[in-house]
């Protein structure tokens, strides 16, 4: 942990252009909110005027960054207690760890003091993933598992039928048949962009269902095991043979754009993708999509569990104001506001049970609402992994070192996808990184 904090302190020097948290703005206080620049978050930024109008004296300043950059800056600021941000967007990877470290405000008193907020309305697995010792330290903005979206029209034209619960081999076979480079349509889109929260999210679910582990129960690194090797070869070869152009630099946003523009027959990714695939303003494939469960190999399920959420750094100076904003962005009414303003397919999914009872949302989301809920419900280690592991997490390894370890391994994976190295060499180098981490935990056990 000391090494991690030193690294984060150095990274914090790169955090520039941010007003101090709780700074005085023109006519009142300014809350600085660090947020990831995904589509649903951009909608929240565009609606900030409604919050400011309802809360005179509070102004919002968003620091919106791509996922990898946001993670680095938010982690550096929070870990070093830099105080740059009043509100931070984090996930179920960070929330329990940071709560245990004393870096986050306990939100239970705030929720209980807010009439109508109703924390019991949160989907139980999402709520638990943001808790430490049964106390919530972050509140979910949207929740997700993973599934496959596919072009029903292209499947029909090719005489193919997508099962409700496909295997990865079936997906690979479909990709081979639907790949049409002349028409500019790849058989599938998968993330290849480096980043522990980018390419490693879908890849690790593939590794899990192939029977692989990052570490065994004794913290022995297993990145060159037959199972991990088979999964890596499968993923890399599928992308190289039938994936999108420029796959080694494609992440969630890039794959979303390619699929929505009609340039891919399938896309395996987060269930929150529907805000992109079903948006009539930007998607060319609305009405042509089907949704199937995350593909499997040896397990019952393989989808991940993830939530982008909001937390308050422990050193925050304006916690009451920060909570007012967070409550506005995560309450029951926010879903209705987004649906009425931007369309019901743009509603942040996967957090509140009540969202799935809104008549307009039920109608708009009928193709994917149940697959989303089913994926979230099945996202646990017992259903998605073959062998027990000593760490929490499905698409990530829930230890502090994974931010660095995962990024390094993702760079090796991306290089293999780009043809710059072999899978065997990429895994051999990755194994060395993982062994160093594993040994530190073995020493603690001794």
Textual characterization of the structure:
The chain is α+β, with helices and mostly antiparallel strands and 446 residues long. It has two domains: 2-143 and 305-366, 3-Layer(aba) Sandwich (D-Maltodextrin-Binding Protein, domain 2), CATH 3.40.190; 146-303 and 381-445, 3-Layer(aba) Sandwich (D-Maltodextrin-Binding Protein, domain 2). It is built from 20 helices and eleven strands. β1 and β2 (28-36) form a beta hairpin. The protein is globular.
Please provide a brief summary of the model.
The chain is α+β, with helices and mostly antiparallel strands. It is built from 20 helices and eleven strands.
Describe the protein's topology.
Blueprint: H1 2-12, E1 24-25, E2 28-36, H2 39-46, H3 48-54, E3 58-65, H4 67-79, E4 87-91, H5 94-100, H6 108-112, H7 124-129, E5 131-132, E6 135-136, E7 139-144, E8 146-151, H8 152-158, H9 168-178, H10 200-209, H11 226-242, H12 252-260, E9 266-270, H13 274-277, E10 289-293, E11 306-311, H14 319-330, H15 332-342, H16 359-364, H17 369-378, H18 381-384, H19 402-417, H20 423-445
Parallel strand pairs: 2-3, 2-4
Antiparallel strand pairs: 1-2, 4-11, 5-6, 7-11, 8-9, 8-10
Helix pairs in contact: 1-4, 10-11, 19-20
- Please name the CATH architecture of the largest domain: 3-Layer(aba) Sandwich
In CATH, the homologous superfamily of the largest domain goes by the name Periplasmic binding protein-like II
Average residue pLDDT: 93
Beta-strand content estimate:
5-15%
Signal peptide: 1-21
Keywords: Signal
Protein name: Sugar ABC transporter substrate-binding protein
Organism: Amycolatopsis dendrobii
């Amino acid at each position: 942990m000391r090494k991690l904090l030193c690294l984060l302190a150095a990274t914090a020097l790169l955090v520039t252009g941010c007003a101090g948290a709780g700074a005085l703005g023109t006519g009142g206080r300014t809350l600085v909110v660090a947020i990831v620049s995904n589509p649903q978050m951009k909608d929240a930024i565009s609606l900030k005027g409604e919050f400011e109008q309802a809360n005179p004296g509070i102004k919002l300043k968003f620091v919106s960054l791509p996922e990898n950059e946001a993670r680095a800056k938010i982690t550096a600021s929070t870990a070093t207690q830099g105080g740059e941000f009043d509100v931070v967007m984090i996930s179920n990877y960070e929330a329990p760890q940071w709560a245990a470290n004393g870096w986050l405000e306990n939100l239970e008193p705030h929720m209980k003091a807010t009439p109508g907020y109703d924390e019991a309305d949160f989907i139980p697995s999402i709520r638990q993933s943001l808790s430490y010792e049964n106390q919530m330290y972050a509140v979910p903005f949207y929740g997700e598992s993973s599934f496959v979206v596919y072009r029903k029209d292209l499947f029909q034209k090719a005489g193919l039928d997508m099962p409700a619960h496909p295997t990865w081999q079936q997906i690979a076979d479909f990709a081979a048949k639907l790949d049409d480079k002349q028409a500019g349509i790849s058989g599938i889109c998968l993330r290849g962009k480096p980043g522990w929260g980018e390419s490693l999210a879908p890849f690790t679910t593939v590794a899990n269902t192939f029977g692989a582990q990052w570490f065994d129960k004794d913290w022995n690194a297993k990145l060159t095991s037959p199972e991990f090797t088979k999964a890596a070869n499968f993923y890399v070869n599928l992308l190289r043979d039938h994936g999108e152009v420029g796959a080694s630099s494609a992440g969630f946003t890039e794959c979303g754009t390619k699929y929505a523009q009609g340039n891919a027959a399938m896309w395996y990714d987060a269930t929150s993708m529907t805000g992109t695939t079903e948006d009539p303003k930007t998607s060319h494939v609305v009405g042509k999509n089907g949704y199937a469960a995350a593909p499997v190999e040896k397990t019952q399920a393989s989808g991940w569990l993830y939530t982008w959420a909001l937390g308050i750094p422990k050193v925050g100076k304006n916690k009451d104001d920060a909570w007012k904003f967070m409550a506005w962005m995560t309450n029951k009414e926010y879903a209705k506001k987004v649906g009425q303003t931007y369309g019901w397919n743009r509603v942040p999914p996967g957090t509140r049970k009540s969202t799935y009872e809104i008549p307009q949302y039920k109608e708009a989301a009928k193709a994917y609402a149940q697959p989303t809920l089913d994926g979230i419900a099945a996202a646990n280690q017992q259903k998605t992994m073959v062998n027990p592991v000593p760490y929490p997490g499905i698409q990530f390894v829930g230890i502090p070192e994974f931010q660095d370890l995962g990024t390094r391994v993702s760079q090796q994976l991306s290089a293999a996808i780009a043809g710059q190295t072999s899978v065997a060499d990429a895994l051999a180098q990755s194994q060395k990184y993982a062994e160093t981490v594993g040994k530190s935990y073995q020493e603690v056990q001794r």
